[in-house]
Write a structure and sequence with these properties.
The complex is a heterodimer. In chain A, helix 2 runs antiparallel to helix 3. The mean pLDDT of chain A is about 95. Chain A is elongated, with a radius of gyration of 15 Å. Chain A has a single domain, classed as Alpha-Beta Complex (Aldehyde Oxidoreductase, domain 3). Chain A has 3 helices and 9 strands, in the order βαβββαβββαββ. In chain A, strand 3 and strand 4 form a beta hairpin. Chain B has one domain: Beta-grasp domain (Ubiquitin-like (UB roll), Roll). Helix content of chain B is about 20%, strand content about 25%. The termini of chain B are far apart. Classes of the chains: A alpha+beta, B alpha+beta.
């Protein structure tokens, strides 16, 4: 249910993992590469990950979510490597019997990914590059 | 004892390698090893305050003692996910 991939992401693949007859909702979040940051034009992004730990920590986020909301299944696929503008960096899908739980859990999940999942993003601009985060 | 040490993102750029094996004494803490690494690679110094440390893929406190064969990583602030 938790994956790191180098190939382009396919939303349906992630959604299919959480589909369930007992659920009335699947909430999704898709992160995409934006063309500008801090007033600069972004040419592309480079994502790096501590892959094994990242998968483990995505699982830990999943565990937290299950303790807080009534959800059925949850899947996260994060892409690494070079990503062009507009491409998807992450897809989250969460199924629940009722929509409120899935929607709230989805927001929580993306926030937690940014806190504890060891994945890094380098912005490459026309005139330079920087790893995001206070490094 | 030998510990595998891994560097990511800005730390990898500062050190110039993804990973290395380091020889340490019995009882060495992760904080002590980080200080030793900074001595060898001063470019790591500015990142000292913002990094988290992990042993065998779990976040640990600075006083954690390393053991032979451990996998130690310096984890810069993470930024996975999308552009919210």
């Amino acid at each position: 249910m938790f994956e790191i991939k180098k190939a382009p992401l396919i939303v349906e693949e992630v959604v299919e993992k959480v589909r369930s007859d007992s659920c009335g909702a699947i909430a999704t979040f898709i992160g995409t590469v934006r063309n500008a940051s801090m007033g600069k034009r972004v040419v592309y992004l480079e994502y790096d990950a501590y892959e094994e730990m990242a998968v483990k920590k995505m699982g830990a986020v999943g565990q937290e979510v299950k303790e807080k909301w009534d959800i059925d299944k949850m899947a996260i696929t994060h892409r690494i490597g070079k990503l062009d503008i507009g491409e998807m960096s992450v897809v989250i899908a969460i199924s629940s019997p009722h929509r409120k739980d899935a929607l709230e859990a989805c927001q929580y999940t993306i926030d937690r990914i940014k806190q504890i999942v060891p994945i890094w993003k380098k912005e490459v601009w026309e005139d330079g590059e920087i790893w995001i985060g206070k490094q | 004892m030998k510990v595998k040490t891994i560097f990511f993102a800005g730390c990898q750029d500062a050190v110039g390698k993804r990973e290395m094996e380091v020889d340490i004494n019995e009882g060495t803490t992760v904080e002590k090893l980080l200080e030793e690494l900074i001595k060898d690679h001063p470019a790591l110094e500015p990142m000292k305050k913002s990094v988290m440390l992990s042993v065998n893929m779990e976040y640990v406190s600075p006083d954690t003692i390393l053991h032979d064969g451990d996998e130690f990583a310096i984890i810069p602030p993470v930024s996975g996910g999308g552009n919210v």
